[in-house]
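User: Hey, quick favor. My workstation is busy. Could you predict this chain's structure for me?
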Amino acid sequence: MGEEAARYLGVSYSRLHQLAREGVGQKVSGHWIFTREELDQYRASEKNKGGRPKDDAKMTMENRTPALAGA
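Assistant: No problem, here it is.
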């Protein structure tokens, strides 16, 4: 179930373990169980955080427009 939950959220398996330590999911008989409702709540909370898309985060100094020097 963990790998399926990670795919559903679009996160790595290790990130899912981190979420479990933060309180997402429940451990039952030694196995982590994640309800769709919990996963949907997590997705909604991440969507509401805002920020720029991950692709924009890769911008390097070479890609940035230089400030107006000597103006």
